[in-house]
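Internal tracking record. Fields below are filled automatically when a chain is submitted to the structure queue. Please do not edit lines marked as system-generated. If the sequence contains nonstandard residues, flag them in the REMARKS field before resubmitting.
Queue: standard
Priority: normal
Entity type: single polypeptide chain
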Amino acid sequence: MNLDSLTSLFAAVPTDWMIIGSFAILAAFDCVRSGARRVCTLALALPPTVILAESLSKAEILGGITGQFSTPMLEAVLFGILLVGMYVLIARIGLSWGEEAGQTIQAALAGVALTAIVVTIWIATPALDQLWNFGPQVQQIFGESYRFFWLLGSFAALAFVRS
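SYSTEM-GENERATED OUTPUT FOLLOWS
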């Protein structure tokens, strides 16, 4: 096997698409291994996290504290802390879904749906977009023009995986 042809194949693929594909594969493997519960919980935790992160700077008591998070890295850390908190809260609500493991088609669909939600939210959140700025092709596909359809389609796919 010629390794030069293999490396030239991967050199032609943009890094953004490799990251997106790797995340989709990891999410799908997690669904095959343990069901879609974690994927669905993360997908449900992302939109409220964006709302909380945007409104936290305008909060009366915590607004001054979050004003100190001025660099993109610190804003991303704050977003991560809020995401973990929302993930725990939504997981503790006790909704029972996605306990079935080992269904590969549903797992692949859930992995792609979660990836579309994560990339769409990532591009829409300024702190995360400054941390890693996706290229113009990804920005155009998952950007503002098609954001509604990606989110709606992804949540519909996760609902299908659940049923």
